[in-house]
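Subject: Sanity check before I submit

Could someone independently write out the structure tokens for this chain? I want to compare against mine line by line before I put it in a report. The sequence has 254 residues.
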Amino acid sequence: MGENKGEKHEPQQVAMAWAVHAFTASGIVLGFLALVAILDGDKTAVFMWLGLALFVDGIDGTLARKVRVREVTPKFDGTTLDNVIDYFTYVAVPAMMVYWFGLVPEGWETVTAATIMAVSCYTFANTDMKTSDYYFSGFPAVWNVVVLYFHILQTSPWTNLIVIAVCAVLTFIPMKYVHPFRVATWRNVTIPMTVLWAATTLRLVLIDPDVPTEQKASSIFFWLWVLSSLYFIGLSLWRSFWPGAEEDDSGQAA
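---
Independent answer below. Compare away.
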């Protein structure tokens, strides 16, 4: 790579690389808007902004690799930028939701939110967070998804507290969790399942909050959402406990 240090890039290449960085940076704006929605007490808006931030995070890596941002803008670390934004949208905003909306029993809000933020520091500092086959090792601090499940399933505060505690412990246990875009195994199934999960999630989030349960309001969408969720759980468990040698999908990432 040493011979590339003095390489000159076309203005169009440089502009495309900075455009991708700007696209990544838009995630922090979306996270801030989610935070404002929390203060306004609008859960639907919170999940919409977090959903858009999740979409940005899901594709910006692929865009960055296509335009070779590391080569074109070597003095600007896109990975650090991505991690800062991810910590805010995946950890800080959901922790605020737990605190602000009282998703855990009364008196547990502060300690639970603080625990979420503290254990997630380990996730983001862990250099072995990704396995050679692009799975996450240990619970990947997707607290935005956790609070989404609390919302859709309308679980009780005590159930939420237990789930958060379990996820916090799983942060330090090297089980595998599938990355929906980078894992090559079953990718031809995983990507459609990701689209199905996203579409059904959007439908369920947009249901009138006065409706007793999402399942009754939209049974078909609810069970398709459950099906797609079980797929990701099953694939993660399979790769965690399958006795075969760990596959190496290097170079096959999306």
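---
OP: Matches mine. For the report I'm noting this point. Residues 24 and 60 are 6 Å apart (CA to CA).
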